[in-house]
Structure formats: C-alpha cells, structure tokens
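Per-residue structure
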Amino acid sequence: MSAAISKPCIICVAITGSVPRKAHNPAVPVTVAEQIESAHQAFEAGASIVHAHVRDEQENPVSDPERFARLLEGLRRHVPRMIVQFSTGGRSGAGRDRGAMLSLKPDMASLAVGSNNFPTRVYENSPELVDWLAGEMRAHGVMPEIEAFDLSHIFQAAAMKRDGRIVAPLYVQFVMGVKNAMPVDRPSFDFFRATLERLAPEAEWCAAGVGRDQITVNEWCVAEGGHARTGLEDNLRLDRDTLAPSNAALVRRVVDLCARHDRPVATPEQARAILGLPAAAAG
C-alpha cells in the first residue's frame, strides 16, 4: 500500500439532518434517545465521528442548546470514545442562533465559510457570521470541520487558517450532490483535492455525497486516501429501490469499501490523533 492509502480512514456518520422521517425513511432518528441509540449502533459498525442536528416535537430542525446539551450528555455517557460534531448549518436557525450550542464544547462543529445555492433557497453565510462562528469555536476549543460547497470555500478556509481565524488543524469536507450546488463530478473532486493540497498541504480532507451518489463519493475518498462521511442525513437508501434500515448499515458499506481497497478503518483514538483532537475524557 502507498503511504496515503495506509492511513486509516475516518468514518463520519451524519445521523439525522432535516428531512422529515415519516415522509421519507422511518429509520431516521429524531428524538434525542433515538439519536443516541443510532449513534451507538453506527459506532459499533465502525464510525468514529457523529455529525448531529437536533429537532423539536414536530420534527423540525432547531438550534436549541438544551436539546444539544441532552444529546451531548447522552453521547458522552453511552459512546464516550466517539467524536461529537454538531451542525451550525442554516437549516436549524438563523444568524448567531446557529452557534448557540458551541459553548457546550463538542469536539467539533461544522463551519460553512461561504454562501451557495440550495435546492429552493440561498444558503447564506455572510463574512460577519462566518467570522463570529469561527471565533466562538476558537473560544470554546471546538475544532471546525469546513464544509466546502464551492471551490472558493477551499480558498477561504486556507486564508482563515493562515490569518489565525482557524487555529485548529485544517479539516475540509467537500460537499457534492446538493441540487443547484456542486454536483458529484470526478474531475471537480480531483481538482478540489489538488487545490487543497496546494493551498494547505498539511490539511486533512473528506467528502460527502448527497443522495444516491453517496456510495460513489465514499469510494473516491477511500481510494484516494481521504476520509468518508455517510449516514441518513445525506442518503436514505442502500440502493435505488431499497431504504437503508439504519445509519449503521450505511457505515458498514464504507467499512466494506475500506476492506475492498485494503484500507484500515480508523479507531476513535486514531481519528483523534489524525485530526489533532485531545483524547476522550476518561469515564
């Protein structure tokens, strides 16, 4: 194996998202208790990072610090080795409400560093809001995961790292397959990787494929030495006709890809070392 491919692959599972489960897939966990159980199952299947939103009683995504606190407490009790990543995305709230949970000090949080189109609206991330969210992450020791929906977002992430707005090791996720944004396109994927390597050669990277192309992007990541994101937030199916029975089932698909490419799956301890995160708290 090459040095790149011998690097363990970190698997992130995005368990919830904002899609109504009753209309799409009943396996999507919504309540805090369901999310904890689903994360636990995905951890046992091989995931080291859990990416999470929270929802209210009507299943709407919300930026509710109390719900995030209950989720964080439960995850740290039941899967204490797992890396917890909260979403600061715009589906759950507006403005600074999106970062209201950062004071809880999860291990990581998503950070979109620029705006782009979504299927029916603009995903707005103003420079002022981006800088405020990044500052809150610095203040509370939260590692950003940069969500790059566009090539300019890679340039912005590298600039923020250079000027100190991001102090943690740079971790960039290429988001592909969102309607009206970057499609799942192999030449673009390769150019994103090359651009990040040129601008920030020390950075780690992963990619998320939204919809039926999730498995395609997973395989590109595994084969090229990156890390992989899967889960019911991004894709509700195992294939074109079969709904995924769980987040764990989607994690196992990535584990199988790693075996096919002779690539080790990162343990939580290896994932923390690769990302420069501190060890999990004892107990």
Notes: The mean pLDDT is 94. The chain has one domain: 3-275.
